Amino acid sequence: MSRSWGERIFDISNSLLLILLSLVTLYPFLYVLIASLSDPAWVVQVRGLLWYPKGLNFEAYSMVFKNPAIMTGYLNTILYVILGTSLNILMTSFGAYALSRQDVMWKNPVMFMIVFTMFFSGGLIPTYLLINDLGMVDTRWALLIPTAMSAYNLIIMRTAFQGVPISLEESAKLDGANDFTILFRVILPLSMPVVAVMVLFYGVAHWNAWFSALIYLRTRDLYPLQLILREILITNSTESMMTGVGGNDKMPIGETIKYATIIVATAPILFLYPFLQKYFVKGVMIGAIKG
């Protein structure tokens, strides 16, 4: 069936608009990447857009990876992401499984109380007092335990578990399976798309987290990467990364160090997302279409 001129014009206009929006969205990241690879003195002098790196220079990245605070923050963040995401998936799976079963008593009131926390919370000061009374201030647990489960993610996973046929659960029970066996060997393997989405949601949240660390942590050896990045970007604390740099060269190289630090902190998530994209699209659509 031939398409009319109006439909062709619409398709072309729509494609051009989407390309323009993609470029506008992508360019800030490209700007940071180009600036981090360019000659520091040139970056400071340029006013306006950057389209290509001039004087290809990797000195900023070398200084970033030589800085012990960056590497310590990197290792801490990886640890928080692995431990935090594992705890999140485990707790969310337990909660979603219990609230998705038909024979669980009081599941509707419990679900109401969980949803209630999405709109009303105790606030920062009561939360800090609770964490302090539990003895978790200035420990890694302060970044893991309070965020062990998200109410929004629990709802998504609960909806996915409800989509698993009840006959599979009944068959497993006839074979002598208990609830843990049903969850880990029946429900979760059939819900891998939503599990992948939860890993992405929780993993990105832990990777980008800095406010909780700012509030609860005092020891610098426990700081995640994002808190180190905040110090570099906001307080201009790049002096410790410029040992051996002359006085006139400190400011230019300091600018490129900031850009390089942003790339180093962002790149892992950008590389991870394409591998989870196919699950991401399927998982976020759970519950959107009924029938």
Give the strand content: under 5%
Low-pLDDT stretches are 287-291
CATH superfamily placement of the largest domain: MetI-like
Largest sheet, strands/sense/barrel: none
Q: List the total number of helices.
A: 14
Which structural class is indicated by helix and strand composition? mainly alpha
Rounded mean pLDDT is: 79
Per DSSP E runs of 2 or more residues, the count of β-strands stands at 0
Number of domains: 2
* Helix and strand element order: HHHHHHHHHHHHHH
The CATH topology of the largest domain is given as MetI-like fold
Molecular shape: globular
CATH secondary-structure class of the largest domain: Mainly Alpha
What's the architecture of the largest domain, going by CATH?
Orthogonal Bundle
Distance between the termini: 31 Å
The percentage helix is: over 70%
Radius of gyration: 24 Å
Written overview of the protein:
This protein has 291 residues and is an all-alpha fold. The protein has 2 domains: 1-56; 58-284, MetI-like (MetI-like fold, Orthogonal Bundle), CATH 1.10.3720.10. It has 14 helices and no strands. It has helices at residues 5-37, 40-45, 59-66, 68-100, 107-119, 124-133, 141-144, 151-162, 166-174, 179-190, 192-208, 211-216, 225-234, 250-284. The longest helix has 35 residues, at 250-284. It is globular, with a radius of gyration of 24 Å.
